[in-house]
Amino acid sequence: MKHRIVVLGAGYAGAVAAGRLAKRLHSDDTQITVVNADTEFVERVRMHQLATGQQLKRRTLTDIYAGTGVEVRQARVTAVDVDRKTVALVAENGADEIGYDTLVYALGSASADHGVPGVVEHAYDIAGRPSALRLRDRLDHLAAGGTVLVVGGGLTGLEAVTEIAEARPDLDVAIAARGGLGDWLNAKAQQHLRGVCDRLGITVHEHTDIARVEATGAVTADGRVLPAQVTVWTTGFAVHPIAAATTLTVAPTGQIVVDATMRSVSHPDVYAVGDAGLADGPGGKPLRMSCASGVPMAWQAADAIAARLTGRKIPKAPLRYFNQCISLGRRDGIIQYVTADDRAKPSLLTGRLAARYKEIVCTGAAWGIAHPTLHPVRRHHIAATRTETLTAIS
């Protein structure tokens, strides 16, 4: 009987994990299945581009995994039973259930409203393709002189507000940040960011908490009204609630708590990668939700699963940070070099060179996912002792 590995989610982390497992495990005794609600791999780091009318390359999962031995199931995950080792699904042809021997949980995250009234009813987000397309349609119908407010001064907010302002110079675009504009960057990066906002005509509201979103704008905690025909909400992400509904050990955020190999601390047959997993980085500092965290987590999980199944030594992936890549429209950007635990260093790149650097990073990440086994390593069989154990259990 083949060892069944089920990967839930095919974002950056899930897609990388599935491809890496296919390179390391022999298909004679393993069966790898990817479950994803969308038929395509979505470049989430480019959703601000999609929202402003740019066309992104489409990559279907069946094409990506053709010839790799990975099976693709298009379905939405509705529940996970980690005690029975089953996953409940809903697809076009109805409800279904699949079993697993090893589960890689990579369901990712969605935009977090943080309980702020009016966000769900009136705000737009770019956490996924459907919501980015919804924003694109709204912007397309916004006449010259229209007002747009981006709420959130993190990486997503900065990329969204500059992309919108560059693509639609006829609009009145503003950003509201809880802290100072880019205050986690070094002084030179902050100066460059302010210069870009000035050049693009972006109004900046710093140290501003939003208490309520309305159809005509946002109301701050101190009662000011920031007018906006379109409010874009980019204040962070929240994980899918499925994990918290199981007996898995989860953090208050709903993320699955994992060890250094991305293995659940409560259920050794479950691994969590990407935004869904809570893993410690350098100095015991939790890895932040990002592609920069998710891909190394996927490397580590896939390598650990393969090593444990084949009786080999578990390698260590570089669970650390090197830089933060921020696009500021299509012709500008900031590459902020950081310490292993994500603190800004004095060194950075800005301008067109930084924009090109960011583009190479994004293109390279997508290319690697689209060619999961282009540079294969030797595929190993499950260790004999492991196979005997599985046979006895079955």
How would you describe this protein?
With 394 residues, this protein is of the alpha/beta class. The protein has two domains: 3-110 and 237-320 and 368-393, FAD/NAD(P)-binding domain; 114-233, FAD/NAD(P)-binding domain (3-Layer(bba) Sandwich), CATH 3.50.50. The protein has helices spanning 12-24, 47-51, 61-64, 119-122, 129-140, 155-167, 187-200, 291-310, 351-370, 384-393; strands at 3-8, 30-36, 40-41, 59-60, 70-74, 76-81, 86-91, 94-99, 102-105, 109-111, 123-124, 147-151, 172-176, 203-205, 210-214, 217-220, 225-227, 230-233, 237-239, 256-257, 270-272, 277-278, 323-327, 333-338, 344-350. The strands form eight sheets. A five-stranded parallel sheet has the order 5-2-1-9-21, covered by helices on one side. Strands 11-18-12-13-14 form a five-stranded parallel sheet. Helix 1 runs parallel beside helix 8 (291-310) and helix 1 crosses helix 9.
